[in-house]
Amino acid sequence: VKAWCCAFATFLSRETLAEIIPKTIRMKTLKITIFIILSFFINQTILSQTKIEGTGIFKIDKTNINVIDSLLNNGSKLKTCSSSFNCQKYNDSKKTIYEMVNDSTDINIFMPLLKGHRNFIIKEYIIAGIKIENLELDFYNNTLFKIKTEGNFELQSALNDKYDEILDVEKKEIICSSVYGEYKREESTYTTTYRNDETIKAIAILRKYYNSKCEENIDSFLIINNIDITKLVKAKEEEIINQIRNKREEKKKKELEKK
Q1: 209 and 217 in contact (C-beta within 8 Å)?
Q2: For an engineered disulfide with 144, which of 42, 63, 140, 166 has Cβ 3.0 to 4.6 Å away?
């Protein structure tokens, strides 16, 4: 593009053009042309500097947990669940918001364990006319630090149009077996990176894989998160999980000693 601009400017300065167009008109034409070119570069720079922060009203490091109250005030209903499986099997309204909480009698290590960490799943939410199912929001100390959605090709297409992306493809050959024998199959993972800097990471993953019965499975999701907060929460919750496991092992040992 820069080379084109230089060539165009050279063309404007040619003596042949000067002979055809009066000097005053030529200067005005040159100024207008330069203005258009500069405007183009400024717009391109602004667009290229646009970085993904979230989706819709949900922005990493900016959205407060009060957004859940706003949704509830607009007709959504809140329901607590100690298992995502149990939540999904209910035939609840599309405007249901699930808060994932640990059962005090049977702690689930896959649910939020750290004080200040709250996890919500919005059963259905519309963003720019795109229906998103099971929109997952994680808050730490009342601020959004992680967004996760199930695979949505329409949403990813919209992101591709708005942001720069880098596609990485990983393929590997595996051997799986079924009642009919062993087969060679190719598994593949497509990772689209929209942002990966010191603050936020945004990736979409589409994965094709085979289970132990050689049945093909497709898994896809989008994750946008604050890298440091995600690591902090994960590390602290792993400490809590280890403590829980140690207590369970001690309890089992004591029960065995009593027998």
Answers
A1: yes
A2: 63
Task: Tell how strand 130-140 and strand 117-127 pair up.
Answer: antiparallel
Could you read off the pLDDT of 34-79 as tens digits, one per residue? 545 544 444 444 444 489 999 999 999 999 999 999 999 999 999 9
* CA separation for the pair 152, 57 (Å, rounded): 18
Residue 69: both structure tokens together = 């109250």
> Using CA atoms, how far apart are residues 124 and 136, in angstroms rounded to an integer?
10
**217's tokens:** 């499975």
C-alpha distances in Å from residue 38, one per residue of 13, 50, 252: 18, 19, 73
Tell me if 54 sits within 8 A of 60, measured CB to CB: yes
90: Cα within 13 Å, side-chain hemisphere: 15
The amino acid sitting at 145 is F
pLDDT in tens, 10-39: 444 444 444 545 555 556 555 555 545 544
For β-strands 200-210 and 181-196, DSSP reports them as: antiparallel
Tokens of 207: 């994965």
**Per-position DSSP letters for 168-235, written without gaps between them:** EEEEEEEEEEETTEEEEEEEEEEEEEEEESSSEEEEEEEEEEE-TT--EEEEEEEEEEEHHHHHHHHH
- Encoding tokens for residue 32? 């207008």
In 3D space, the residue among 155, 228, 150, 234 whose CA is nearest the CA of residue 194 turns out to be 155
- Residue range 152-161: mean pLDDT, rounded: 88
Please give the structure tokens belonging to residue 212: 């132990």
Condensed to tens digits (0 to 9), the pLDDT of residues 162-179 reads: 999 999 999 999 999 888
Give the integer Cα–Cα distance in Å for 221 and 149: 6
